[in-house]
From TrEMBL:
MF terms (GO), sorted A to Z: hydrolase activity; metal ion binding
Protein name: MBL fold metallo-hydrolase
Statement: the UniProt record of this protein carries the keyword Glycosyltransferase: no
Gene3D superfamilies, per database record: Ribonuclease Z/Hydroxyacylglutathione hydrolase-like
Origin species: Salinirubrum litoreum
Cofactor(s) needed: Zn(2+)
Length: 192
């Protein structure tokens, strides 16, 4: 089960996806709301926190979650203060009941990761791709439009039309033909 614990939160935050199963994981913690109580509404324990990237809106609740559940955090770059354990490009990571391929996808931020479970048809896209072909900002520190386009194309070349769910860093998850949104983002990022 995948539940966005930040859904309905009015503060500036990212989405934060609680994935329960064999390995109960919080994908991003969000910021500026009580993530701990939202997690506790669904589960008693967490096995890990996995970060798509370390912008403040995605990691603001890391310390509170880490302290409350005595869990470690995982992400691409252990030089970042919120990342205790590294996930390498193309490493397999267990999230919930499925194995996900970690894809290093810079362009929005250097340490950005996407996670794709081929067997389940699920993609966690972070701030790389959003609904309706929107794509991550490149006007922040470490932003790079050419790298972003390469990363979107990498995801496009990894997933296929059987993709059934795309969970994004902001806005609604895409559960109706998410592959089309990735294709659209690939084209749009070249135009704007």
């Amino acid at each position: 089960m995948i539940h966005n614990i930040a859904q309905g939160v009015q503060a500036f935050t990212s989405n934060a996806f609680l994935v329960s199963g064999d390995r109960t994981v919080l994908v991003d913690t969000g910021a500026n709301f009580d993530a701990v109580s939202h997690v506790r509404d669904d589960v008693d324990e967490l096995d890990a926190v996995i970060l798509t990237h370390t912008h403040e809106d995605h990691v603001g609740n890391v310390e509170a979650v880490r302290d409350a559940f005595d869990v470690e955090t995982w992400g691409f770059d252990t030089d970042q203060p919120w990342v205790e354990n590294a996930i390498a490009d193309e490493e397999t990571v267990r999230i919930g009941d499925d194995d996900y391929l970690a894809l290093h996808t810079p362009g929005h931020k250097d340490d950005h990761l996407c996670f794709y479970a081929e067997s389940a048809g699920i993609l966690f896209a972070g701030d790389l791709i959003f609904q309706n072909g929107s794509f991550g900002r490149t006007d922040l520190a470490e932003g790079d439009r050419d790298l972003l386009i390469q990363s979107i194309d990498r995801v496009l070349g990894t997933v296929d039309e059987s993709l059934s769910e795309m969970h994004v860093g902001h806005g609604p998850s895409v559960i109706d033909r998410p592959y089309d949104d990735i294709e659209l983002a690939s084209r749009a990022a070249r135009m704007y």
